[in-house]
Amino acid sequence: MSKEPVNFYDFASFFLSKGCRNALYLDGFVSRTYLPAQDWTQLDGNFGVMIGVAE
User: Fold this and answer.
1) Which of 25, 26, 32, 35 could form a disulfide with 40 if both were Cys (CB 3.0 to 4.6 A apart)?
2) In angstroms, rounded to a whole number, what is the distance separating the alpha carbons of residues 41 and 37?
3) Domain map of the chain by residue range?
4) Which tens digits make up the pLDDT trace of 10-49?
């Protein structure tokens, strides 16, 4: 999640620089973050579960 606008080129470049070959883009309208430790709590929608695995 980003608190600032990000274009697709910068988005892809960031993940490529970290060695990621595949990434998932979630539209900002339906994407929400609940991370109280960083004072980031978006409670204006339904939440689902997303699990990532890195090898």
Assistant:
1) 35
2) 9
3) 1-55
4) 988 998 999 988 877 766 566 677 778 888 887 777 766 6
Distance between CA atoms of 39 and 3, rounded to whole angstroms?
A: 12
Is the distance from CB of 1 to CB of 31 less than 8 angstroms?
yes
Q: Looking up tokens 């470049």, which residue turns up?
A: 13
The Cα-based distances of 43 to 21, 36, 37, 52 in angstroms read 31, 11, 15, 22
Residue found under tokens 């204006």: 44
What 3-state class would DSSP assign to 31? coil
